[in-house]
Amino acid sequence: MDRYAVMGYPVTHSRSPQIHALFAKATGQSMSYERIGPSPDEFEAAVARFRSEGGKGMNVTLPFKERAFALADSCSERALSAAAANTLVFREGGIYADNTDGVGLVRDLERNLQCDLRGRSVLLVGAGGAARGAVGPLLEALPSRLVIANRTASRAVSLLEQLRQAGGIPADRLVLCQACGLDRIPAGPYDFVINATSSSLAGEVPPLPRAVFGPRTFAYDMMYGKGSTPFMDFAKEQGALRTADGLGMLVEQAAESFHLWRGVYPDTAPVLQRLRAELG
Ligand code: ATR
C-alpha cells in the first residue's frame, strides 16, 4: 500500500488524513495517509526517513512550508512563486514540490461558490505565507486588479518584490498588483476581499476601512471554524453581499495534491459536505 503523510508542528489538528482517506475510498486508491509531527529541528530528517521507508509523497503544513520547498530538486511555477510548498512528491529522480493552496482557493471560489474572478477587483489582506501562495493562482484567474494590503506595509511591498524576483509569475500579470498598508488601501469597493491573515486565530479582524466593502463584495476568509468567522461577521456588518470561510479551500487544495500523487481527481463536493456537517 502506498504511504503518504502530513507533517506539521503541531499536526494533531490536521484534517488532511480524514480528507485523503475519503478521497482514496471514493476513487478506489490503495493508500495510507498518516500524521507526522516532527519537532522543528527534525523536519528534514523526518522527511528523509519517511522517504527512505517508501513514502510516496506528503503534505506539509505550518511551520514547514518554506523548508519543504528548500528540500525540492524540482518544483511547479506556483511553488516557485510562493517559495513555499504544501505538497511533496517523492520520485525516482528526486523530490518534486508543489503549492496547491492558491489553486485550492481559486477552485473554491470559482467552482464551489460560483464566482467569476475575471475582470474583477480583488483585495488580498495579509502578507504571510497564506497570502504569498494565493497571489499566483489569483492572477491566473485574470482579475482586473489585485491589491495586497498588510498591517505591516513593508511586508506587502517586499512580498510583491520577491514574487517579481522569483520569476514564477509573468510580468504582465504582476503589473496588476499593488502593495500597501491597511491605512493606504486604494479606493474600493472591491468585488472580492480575501482575508489571508491569521487574525481570526486571536478572534480579531484586520482593521479595514469600511469603503473596501460594497453591496457587491464577496468577503472570503481563508480560516474556518464552527459557524462564521470574526472576519465574515465583520464583513457582513460593513455591508458585504456574501461571505465564505476557507473550508472549501482546504478540501480543494487536498484534491489537487491527491491528483498530483494518484493521477485521479476526486469529487470534492461530498467531502466538503461531510466536513461541514461535522463542524456543525
Ligand atoms: P501565515 O503563513 O499563516 O500567513 P504569517 O507569516 O505569520 O502566517 O502571517 C500572518 C499574517 O497575518 C501577516 O500578514 C500578519 O500581519 P503582519 O505582517 O503585520 O504581522 C497578519 N495578521 C496577524 N494578526 C493580525 C491582526 N490582528 N490584524 C491584521 N493582520 C494580522
Question: Which keywords apply here?
Answer:
280 residues, alpha/beta, Rossmann fold, 6-stranded parallel beta sheet, 11 helices, 12 strands, binds 2'-monophosphoadenosine-5'-diphosphate
CATH class of the largest domain: Alpha Beta
Task: Tell the overall outline.
Answer: globular
Walk across the major sheet and give the strand order. Answer: 2-1-3-5-6-4
Helix content: 25-40%
Spell out the helices and strands N to C: EHEHEHEHEEHEHEHHEEEHEHH
- The CATH topology of the largest domain turns out to be Rossmann fold
Beginning-to-end CA distance, first to last residue:
33 Å
- Work out the number of β strands: 12
Judged by helices, strands and strand pairing, the structural class is: alpha/beta
**How would you characterize the largest beta sheet?**
6 strands, mixed
Radius of gyration: 18 Å
Q: Look at the structure and name the CATH superfamily of the largest domain.
A: NAD(P)-binding Rossmann-like Domain
Q: Mean pLDDT score, rounded?
A: 96
CATH architecture of the largest domain: 3-Layer(aba) Sandwich
Count of helical segments?
11
Any low-confidence stretches, pLDDT <50, length ≥5? none
